[in-house]
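To: structure subgroup
Subject: Chain for Friday's discussion

All,

I'm putting the inputs and outputs inline so they're searchable in the archive.
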Amino acid sequence: MVKLEYTAENKATLDINKDLIKDKRHLTQEEIEILIKNQNKNEDNSWSNVFVDSKENCFDASLIVNSEFSGLIVLGVLKKAKLAYHDLVLEAGIYNSKLINVVTGNDNVIRNSYYIENYHLGDRVILFNIHELCCTKHSKFGNGILKKGESEENRVWIGVANENDGREILPFESMIPADAYLWSHYRDDEELLKRFVELTEYGNSGEYNTFGFIDDDVVIKNSNIIKDAKIGKCAYIKGAFKLKNITILSSEDETSQIGEGVEMVNGILGYGSKVFYQAIAIRFVIGRNCQVKYGARILNSVLGDNSTVSCCEILNNLIFPFHEQHHNSSFLIATTIMGQSNIASGATIGSNHNSRSPDGEIIAKRGFWPGLCSDFKHNSKFASFDLISKGSYQYELDIPYPFALVSIGVNGDQSVHITPAWWFMYDMFAITRNKYKFIKRDKRKVKIQSIEVDPLAPDTMEEIMMSLDRLIGLTLEYLLLSKNEAVLAKKTQEEKYQAAKDFLHQNPDADFTLNDSTCQKRYGAVILKPVKAYKMYRKIVKYFATKTLMEYCKSLKIDYLTLDVIEKIRKLPLYTQWENVGGQIIPSEKVKLLFSYIKNGSVNTWDAVHAFYTLCDYSYEQYKVRYALYLLEQLYSCSIEDFSCELYKNIIDDVTVVAMDICDSSYSSREKDYTYYYRNMTYHSKKEMDNVIGSLKDNSFLNELREDIKQFIDDIPIVFKGLIS
């Protein structure tokens, strides 16, 4: 209901913050007359509520035309000048606008802004054609905090990862996916959850004295409603429909932009991010260098840095950095997607529930690539870098095998088919290019957290080691069912397990399949090419371990490992369990340590939490090299000091083969695009093809890869030279 209040023409009483009127003065009588002559009005007939710059010749009253003022008005330098942004050129001044309790910076343009209330503006701000720009005294700018006396019901929560809000978190200005992950995925520790709220409230005075803020060099034009917004430097907003209770982080180096028809309510937009063309975001945190465009809808979600989403629908998700989702026929509901992911057209992830309430969820580790028109049932889990073939997956999935191809059975077979290590066997180019691709796409000027973009890292190695053990166990089941005499002759379970392992090593050409009943509810999974997968997994672990040891030697400026160096490595802390925390790979024990620091008060702010991430990153290479040594010793079931010359030769040979495969397969995969008949048939000539897709010999990625691999292969025999007796 509209509230009516008759106002008397009395001099208003103002509560003035003296800091705001430092170096300011009242208007002269001559200036007041000029203002009145130019059709300006003031609720205070004395104009004593207006303060202007006190320096000589720094205020020109003629630059204010046909405008209304009320409350405290503090104006910065206002002289004849032109402000230009792209093709927009406007004269400094205030024209056809209404200002209530507004503080401006120097050299502002305020033109056709029909209602501005309770805002402070920086220097060189352009406000052009804005219907409503206002801020309440209780605004939180998208942060999940409370003012004094407010009830908990007033908090703005983000219901990530699950539609029932059981994993809800509070947004805050510096939030990154790592914070959201720790908060949303450790819900069994009530004390920790309470401390997360306290960290979010840290530094909040709770006073009802909030004003909106628009920083230096911001341009806002042709926009409808902007309410309770904090807008950072150099931001550009054009044609926005509604911006309410948000923070737009922006700087000269990382400018943020909001375009036509955009609606954003209750959230944080990260530095350098862009939201265009009727996109909608409600209850959100969007990271650095993200793009949200073409009608994309983001609700109750956290989107990690360097992500691009277009046309799609994203509801109740926690998404780590480097996420791609471009198609208006896709949606993502109630998931935790751990980054470096790409959602194909028609993929409807989270489209169905298997309980009486919408409380299912999907967890996919990094490198999740579901195929065209694929859909999955809650609850499901996927290992790292799993490629899911096109299809409708009718039952819950638990896929523990990384770098695998998952597909639906054919000819009535309702089991899913899994080819572990598929990427390494059939598309080395794509998985190798992954690292280079994401490094190039990382446009963050300020990197609050280190993001692991190498597919071969401790988290994926841990998954591979578990998969190796699983393949051996399933092979044992297969051999027992096949009445294998060598296995049946063994007495203990340990001996039988070793016999199954020996079988995988001694029969490289064996052609059989395995059954894994837990990979899919009811119908299980068929594991294809288990021997090849087993051998390839082992080679990849050796490759990772050798490469990591080699990099460690280079960091010490030595050419090869010695027993003394091994002893030094062995003294480093060993961590065998790892977590992807917002894109950074951190030992699980370190995560538990952070929780203890938070609960005992040693860590009291989110900035301190971020500093802990940084400390973990400082030691990451040491943690990794210790783990690499552990992996080699696990593969061969003995200490590296006991490795024989033959064993070292096996490592060198396998790692060399993998390195050559990476180079040769990457090149041959791309070469097919130039030699394959059906790729060539749309071009008149080779020259035309080169002009369209680029020349193969000029492919910078392949040329760089070839040089790196050549050097790596040359270094492989050297790194172990000091250990081979």
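Points worth raising on Friday:
Residues 217 and 234 are 5 Å apart (CA to CA).
The chain has a mean pLDDT of 92.

D.
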